[in-house]
Design brief:
- The protein starts with a helix and ends in a 25-residue tail after the last helix.
- Strands 2-3-1-4 form a four-stranded antiparallel sheet, with helices on both faces. A four-stranded antiparallel sheet has the order 7-8-6-9, sandwiched between helices. Strands 5-10 form a two-stranded parallel ribbon.
- The C terminus is likely disordered.
- It contains 26 helices and ten strands.
- 54% of the residues are buried.
- With 712 residues, the chain is of the alpha+beta class.
- It is a multi-pass membrane protein.
- It is found in: Cell membrane.
- It comes from Kineosporia corallincola.
- This is MMPL family transporter.
Amino acid sequence: MATFVVRHRWWVVGFWLAALVAGVGAASAVPDRLSYDFSLPGQEGYETAVDLGEAYGITGEMSRVPVYTAPAGETIAEHRDEAARIDQALAALPGAQVLGYAQTGDERFLTDDGRSTFSLLFTPSPEGWADPVADQLASTLATAAQQTGLDVRTTGYLELSTDSAEDTEGPSVLAETLIGAVGALVVLIFVFASFLALVPLLVAAVAILSTFLVVLGLTEITDVSFVVQFLVALIGLGVAIDYSLLVVSRWREERAHGMSNDEAVGTAVRTAGHAVLASGVTVAISLIALVVVPVPMLRSMGFGGMLIPLVSTMVVLTLLPALLSLVGPRVDWPRIRKEGNASRAWSAWARGVVRYRWVAAGVGIAALGLAVAPVFGLQFGMTSSGSLADSGPAHEALTDLGEGGVGSGVLSPITAAVASPADAPAVAEAASRVEGVRLAVPLEPSPSGLTGVVIVPDHETVDNTSVAITDDVRDAVSGLPGYRGLAGAGPVVQDYQNAVYDRFPLVLTLIALITFVLLVRTFRSVLLPLKAVLLNLVSLAAVFGLATWFWQEGHGSQAVFGVSETGAMEFWLPVLIFAFLFGLSMDYEVFLLARMREEYDRTGSTSIAIERGLGRTGRLITSAALILFFSFAALASTPDTDIKVLATSLGVGILLDATLVRSLLVPALVSLFGRYNWWLPVPLARLLFVEPSPLRPATEVEEGERRPVGVG
């Protein structure tokens, strides 16, 4: 491949230049064609919401909560007519349904002191960052407050999210990519200490824009989630630079050893490029496994995310060699940092790990165990209201309701779909008797006859422990005539549990098995891939443990991001974090072990293989991790809490993997396993079409008597 690329380098450059230009146009067109689809076909909550949407124009999944408060010394009962006028004005909003004290006379809509009341306002769910009724709603409520003399405020998940976000227009992909690129450039200047630092950035720009071009084509075939644009820009930036860093460093190393420029290009592609190919395919497979999850959003993330490593790998293995062949030596100036020898610091570190391998392994395992511990309290669901805002009108309205004896369940009502108006009262009566339900009231019948019964629990149903009330309500009403299903936040949480996590063991098994097979071919070993997969799973558990401790339990999230404890992790986040992080962290395993395998084949010594492998790749792995970390740090600047959780989990996971795991545990375990690391029996090698690696006899070197590094 390298020979072909070097011979046709101008054609290769021309091809990618055309892709770059086309990608610029695609990058501006893609955001308008992305989907904000959170559907869960075949699940009760989603199908019921669809029925309600067809009948009423609303899904019943989430409500806004207008709160009306009478002047001091008066009660809301004295102002029922004014409250009715406000509700009537709200009902005139496009597709709106309103339910409250003014229509029903139900005193359960009142606070304990009778001075305030709340209504439930259902509006069509917004698509994208813009809320289509927000401005009209604010205007209607402001006018109502002036005309009635009541204090009028609104709360709800949308309003709380708006109060907590400084930027309600949504995050800027371009701005965050530029922030990540600046951080990456700083690291590249440190690594190369020459103008060569600009080459990986150029490669990343081509890879990102080319990926957007392919994503644009993908939107013609299937829906693609809005999250993909952030993944392409920021993960694409880190992945393309990481891959370029490995190849360029190997090219510099071979040049320092006296090879001609084109020979160095060929060697770099044959060695480092092989590791890049294995890494790219591993990341792609870990993402494409998401297609087995019956959730359109996650499937589209799988397809879209898969393109990132594949396109980056193509660009790195074609455009980068062409550029190095054309201008590599000229831009590698001034050559302050030399690549002729391995890093002294990392080589010394490797020798220390080998010498104290039992201690190193023990420290690494203990540290991972400490990080894993909180994962057993991990909750799946929606971000709790307490983490969305701690000030602002929406927060104050919810606080006033709480002080008046009205729980946070008003934010997450459950809506039962009933076939006819005649059946609705019985469903409402049965639901209202369930412990933990504040009230249950039918809506006006829809034109089709389908009638919604709104059920308000005492507490919000946002995670897999608080949704028990949903099961209780379902048990109470499912046997009644006309019952069609439940919709709302609680049923949605259960939908995701059924659709995502019932399939998660299958996703995990597929990713682990395919990765294992690929790594057996790459390392020509049975033990190294098995260790890599198991260690990756443990490090992922540690990341989820840290995310649980930091975000869900709130140990530092307020201080760092101004966000209170979330109480739960959004449904789709754990699967996406797992898929991306499993592949990305495996990159470093491949980089490190591929070089160790190369050195072992050359010397026959595990100790020398560890020293030279880590001495050559330690600085690269750390630098590559920092580059990805800067990309994720830029992504964490978005106002959306879920994207912050995604970005910080990926960023911390990359740093944890590059430091504790790859720099400490991996060399310690490889040293402990000795010659068994490199064994691949003949039958398995034939099955995988690779050269076998028989178990070598133990040598003095393996027993701990090291030869000097310079001895071949």
